[in-house]
Design goal:
There is one protein chain. The chain is about 30% helix and about 30% strand. By secondary structure, it is of the alpha+beta class. It has a single domain, classed as Aminopeptidase. The protein has a seven-stranded mixed β-sheet, with helices on both faces. A hairpin with a 2-residue loop joins β2 and β3. α1 runs antiparallel to α2 and α3 crosses α4. The longest helix is centred in the middle third of the chain and has 20 residues. It starts with 5 loop residues before the first strand and ends in a 7-residue tail after the last strand. The relative contact order is 0.16. The structure holds coenzyme A. The site of coenzyme A has 21 residues, from β4, α3 and α4.
Length: about 180
Amino acid sequence: MHPAVWLISLQDLDDDARAIQLEAVAGLELLPGQENFVGDPLRMALAGLAEVSRRPYVIESNGEAVGMLTLQAGAARLAGWPDDHSAWLLRGFLIDRRHQGKGYGPLGAAAAVAAAEKLSRRHRTAETGVVLSVHETNPAGLSAYRRAGFEDRGQYLGGSAGPQQTMFRAFAAPGRT
Ligand SMILES: CC(C)(COP(=O)(O)OP(=O)(O)OC[C@H]1O[C@@H](n2cnc3c(N)ncnc32)[C@H](O)[C@@H]1OP(=O)(O)O)[C@@H](O)C(=O)NCCC(=O)NCCS
């Protein structure tokens, strides 16, 4: 199955449309144990809306919210990147438990890179790609990101949650779009 996904920017919606999307976010569920890898969906969406550097998105397919993610500017070091500004940070990435294992993860992660690239071009900022960190004990995450074109960029031992893998996907080279 190859479902198409769309990213809906919560920031760019009017109040009514945002309320509908937030209700959908509140309905997203994880499998037991996955809360070790990612935060509570509604909290992450609200935190994202409250902070200017963050852009929270709903991942939608066939008119249904299947997951969410957040892009953050100026925070790449949180994923073990050497500086904050040369990459977008992808964080808070999840697919609802009822939709996992269908390929939405790689599609959503690839869509995040495309959205980040558009933002960098529009605002003429310095990012050259997207970075994230994923726990080494999260094979579904590692696999989904690799399939989305992210490369391993070494182990990251920062944070309190145990060893993580830093992964990066560069934007298309300038002029190649
Ligand atoms: C990581 C995550 C986003 C992947 O999304 P996804 O849509 O399930 O991705 P895929 O469909 O490509 O599945 C990824 C892998 O997990 C396996 N998988 C995922 N859900 C599964 C399920 N319910 N049953 C069996 N296998 C499953 C897939 O078979 C695949 O393994 P493979 O690459 O060896 O074939 C999703 O599992 C998730 O939301 N996890 C909880 C939050 C999390 O870990 N986020 C990442 C934080 S960095």
